[in-house]
Amino acid sequence: MFSFFNLKKKNYLFSFVFSIFFFFWSQQIVNFDIRQILLLLIPITIFYKDEFKEFKKRLILFSIINIFIIIHLVINNINNKIPINNIFNPILGLIISSIIIIFYRDFIIKNIKNIIGIFLIIILAGFLWEVFYNENYFFKKNFDCLHGWYSRDLQFKFFSENSHFGMSCAAIILFLSYKIKINNKYNIFFLLLIIFLFLFLSTTLLIGVMVSTSLILVFNYKILSKYNKIISIILILITVIMIGSKKQCSVRFSQTIEGGFNAIKYFLYNQKINQTPWKADEDQKDIIHKSLNISSAVLLNSYTVAFKSLRDHPFGLGLNNYYIGHAIYTDKTIKHNNDKLYWEYLNEKDGSNNLSKMLTEFGVFSFIIFFLIFKFLKLKNINLPEKSFIFSIVITQLIRGAGYFNGSFLLCLLLIMSLTLIKVKNEQK
To answer: Is the dihedral of CA 96, 98, 101, 102 positive or negative?
Structure first.
């Protein structure tokens, strides 16, 4: 089909659209939200629907998923007395993402290299322009988790902060790393690109690479080649060393761990003396205060919201309703700067990570999704580089995300669900 478009032009056009959607989601052109570029692909689907295998299976699968989420959201909104018109935006985003996966699932998998390649060309061009023409030279001090490249005043500021780049960059690094093979003439090229990407340093990038690679190594250890195992171990060691050697990275990482540990002690302490959690004496509060920076505080607060919401609302609060849990369960006793709440309005809608957001909004149903994510790692009908790219985007944004509709999180999650559920059904047959 597609007689008015030759195959090569079609592939590059579609890859360009997906590249913009995957990586430049935080940008706006005048008043146009650049994420909406994905809408261009929907009317085109009618011209070549017959090209896709298992079309009916995908249609049935996502119809069931969408109906369940809509009913779940409507019931929760009625129970919480939320205006019914609040469901339209998140449901519209869900339906659009589902349509894209129904039609373009195979295209995305086969063209991930093109999608990444277009992004790298754009980002490299912007970087070279800033270095040679705009005099924003890449000094050594930029090689830091806090004072990174995108914390500067740049003409081509593709991301509002380094962590936004890290949400997607971790997946690209894994893809390129697993593309490295013995006697591959492109190995040096891939290595140079990986080094280049590590210049845009952030804690999110390092943690995303470390955790994603570790999970891939553990869950695929028996089927990974020795070469891939070596690459995985090298990646993990590099990220661990960089986290330990970069002050801002190590501070954020260690304070989050320490803050979480002290928060657990704090919680248990109050339980033992039959007090309300988080209401101990000032000395106990100081333990928490000294352990937290603002990033750690927001992250730990999101976990507080998620676990308390899971306890009180085990079936969740509904799609995009995290803000309800945030308003109810945000810890009001941990304060900073003369008792001024410094996280009260931070990440009140996205939770700073999609793990807390999903637990709050879908409750126990979230564990079905988590099961499918790890089941996806066992699939043998998708190559390791492509699998690691999709998996890493989801895992990284479960750790540090900006909601379902940014950074292609929902698109990759639906892609995982499609591949895993349909594959499992075929195996049973």
So the answer is: negative
Report the candidate in 101, 73, 103 with the shortest Cα–Cα distance to residue 89: 73
CA distance 170 to 207: 9
Helix (H/G/I), strand (E/B), else coil: 420: helix
How far apart CA 415 and CA 244 sit, in angstroms, is 34
pLDDT at 337: 43
Nearest to 235 by CA among 258, 260, 205: 205
3-state secondary structure of 32: strand
CA 186 to chain centre: 28
Task: Say how many C-beta atoms besides its own lie within 10 A of residue 234's C-beta.
Answer: 12
Rounded to the nearest 10 degrees, how much is the dihedral formed by the CA atoms of 132, 133, 135, 136?
-80
Lookup result for tokens 């590590």: 198
The number of CA neighbours under 13 Å toward the Cβ of 404 is 23
Q: Could you give the CA distance from residue 272 to residue 269 in angstroms, rounded to a whole number?
A: 5
Look up the pTM and report it.
Answer: 0.84
Tokens coding 127: 């970087």
Q: Of 50, 49, 45, 56, whose CA–CA distance to 96 is shortest? A: 45
Say what the pLDDT of residue 117 is: 92
Record the tokens describing residue 36, joined without a space. Answer: 């909406």
List, for residues 305-331, the tens digit of each pLDDT value. 888 888 888 898 888 888 888 888 776
pLDDT digits (tens, 9 = 90+) for 175-215: 999 988 877 788 888 899 998 888 888 888 888 999 999 99
